[in-house]
Amino acid sequence: MAILNRILKEEVYVAQPLGFARIEAIRLFLEYVAHKDFIVFQMDVKTAFLNGILKEEVYVAQPPGFVSKQYPYHVYAFDKALYGLKQAPRAWYDVLSKFLIDSGFQKGSIDTTLFIKKKVKHIMLIQIKECVRFSALDLVGKPVDHTVYRSMIGSLMYLTSSRLDIMFATCMCARYQAKPNEHHVSSVKRIFRYLKGTIHLGLWYPKDFGFDLTAFSDADHAGCHLDRKSTSGSVKFLGDKLVCWSSKKQNCVSISTVESEYVAVSGCCAQVLRMRTKLTDYDFFYDKVPIYCDSKSAIAIS
Question: Smallest Cα–Cα separation from 171: which of 156, 185, 161, 182?
Answer without folding.
Answer: 156
